[in-house]
Specification:
Number of domains of chain A: 2
CATH class of the largest domain in chain A: Alpha Beta
Strand content of chain A: 25-35%
GO molecular function, one term (chains A, B): uridine phosphorylase activity
Structural class of chain A: alpha/beta
Helix content of chain A: 25-40%
Organism (chains A, B): Mus musculus (Mouse)
Number of strands of chain A: 14
Oligomer: homodimer
Domain Nucleoside phosphorylase (chains A, B): 78-327
CATH architecture of the largest domain in chain A: 3-Layer(aba) Sandwich
Largest interface: A-B, 77 and 77 residues
Radius of gyration of chain A: 20 Å
Distance between the termini of chain A: 46 Å
Binding site for substrate (chains A, B): 241, 243
CATH superfamily of the largest domain in chain A: Nucleoside phosphorylase domain
Largest sheet of chain A: 5 strands, mixed, barrel
EC number (chains A, B): 2.4.2.3
CATH topology of the largest domain in chain A: Rossmann fold
Amino acid sequence: MASILPASNRSMRPDKNTYESPGWTEIPQYRPGCPQIHRKRSVYVKNPYLEGMDEDILYHLDLGTKTHNLPAMFGDVKFVCVGGSPNRMKAFAQFMHKELRLEGDGEDIEDICAGTDRYCMFKTGPVLSVSHGMGIPSISIMLHELIKLLHHAHCCDVTIIRIGTSGGIGIAPGSVVITDTAVDSFFKPRFEQVILDNVVTRSTELDKELANDLFNCSREIPNVPTLIGHTMCTYDFYEGQGRLDGALCSFSREKKLDYLKRAYRAGVRNIEMESTVFAAMCGLCGLRAAVVCVTLLDRLESDQINLSHDVLVEYQQRPQLLISNFIKKQLGLCDQMS
Amino acid sequence: MASILPASNRSMRPDKNTYESPGWTEIPQYRPGCPQIHRKRSVYVKNPYLEGMDEDILYHLDLGTKTHNLPAMFGDVKFVCVGGSPNRMKAFAQFMHKELRLEGDGEDIEDICAGTDRYCMFKTGPVLSVSHGMGIPSISIMLHELIKLLHHAHCCDVTIIRIGTSGGIGIAPGSVVITDTAVDSFFKPRFEQVILDNVVTRSTELDKELANDLFNCSREIPNVPTLIGHTMCTYDFYEGQGRLDGALCSFSREKKLDYLKRAYRAGVRNIEMESTVFAAMCGLCGLRAAVVCVTLLDRLESDQINLSHDVLVEYQQRPQLLISNFIKKQLGLCDQMS
């Protein structure tokens, strides 16, 4: 990455010549006694070239505007859940199928992206469940194409939540961290995006109200420690996260612990590998976004993940249960709380 | 990424207190009339902590030193081929099974990493075929664990080749590029690795003799344009590669073309997303490495990948055919050239 940072365009003021205008549409609804203005929050892309394209092929999703009727397939999507593992996202979709009491057997749920092995995607009513692989570049590709998909499908009022696994710092394994701010390896709330051969800095703010709503939901789930905290996002699982068990390691155990403790003092409670770019892109495109990760270990104590299969499965279900309860509440299905 | 670069340790002089000594073992073999010194080139890790670990769990491969007999399973591996797509790496393993005329039906080849959905791995005689997902972080995780695996299995004289897809610059789609040097978005032959909260610069040199050997092999394959050139590695598929069809685009078509033409003038012939970290890590660990990618389109002409299924499959087989011929030659199976 360059050591030269041009003037930060962190606020991303829209340039009328470059971007579409913000996607707010005011729809007045007057009812006797209840004058209200109802706003729909569109998913909007920030690319003036898209409008002029005859066809848009979402290559890594095996979908396209000519080959698929995207509004018919996805127009009712209100919640998108993303996570690294294809198996876990399929399991989540099957879980949501039951929780939303949809018709049919959720066991044979179809992978919408079966024509490619890059990502998988499942739809259960208004909930889309998508895998994104590991790391910032992998989730970035998926998000570009997902955001275009939601735009082409004319989706509005979409909430997107990353459900993941992570390493905790100073908290019990199995804790769930709801991210208030994603930070980089230097504990800064920023994402540095390389555009051609320039580096621009983007904000990694997440939706505070959403994070609080999720935290309030978590209070109804017993025996799962849940907290709001900063999440640090790295480009590497080993050296970049201070692990002593990689193929390469050029620092001491003392240096490792010093770094992790400094991260803790800066407010970091867990470490993963997708949150900064996730926050940056969703923020730019009008998607209300959250990150909810379970921690598999306390990095102050160990580096290796050595959980039994059953414990690992149970831990990975914790964010799914929280998000399921949140979604049901949003849909007014409170009597079906698990 | 930080804008502060500490003193480059590009040469990575081994520090005797920090690293294992270089993995060269001299084994004298004296035969009448043929006095020779035979050298075995070990795969070596650069982490003093590994030796003291009671157990090493290769978490994302679902393998481990206590649960698996790694020397028995992998000790004879001489060639490792890696690529992003699980399906493509399985197809390559099945192809190698036929090309090496191994016993049994290669169709039901077993995924060694079936217990995880992060990566897949297949073994056909001395050839290991492994998927790595998309992007630098994803391949980095796999390489750390693969290199440790080869080390634990006491493998020696291992050649590793990434076979991939890419975007070409100024060359016909379907061309195969053998990388001489991997460069970053700024056309520099370097990989910037974040270690804790410092940035170190690593060399991205690949094995020149191996690249030339592969190029010579390619001459025997008709109708596949093949060349040696620089490969640019980016962190992003859209904005970082100058695409005008992402969810976000803040530059003009003119800026895009200027950037790609400057890349061309700097020697870049194709763009992908793993080669710099691949070259850096393999170089540090004693693995003779190459990158061989087919180009799916000419980025000076277009951004979207719009190939028919059959053409896409045939293009993706081109690097596989070249590597298969190379491996057979190395194993002395020249009469079985396809």
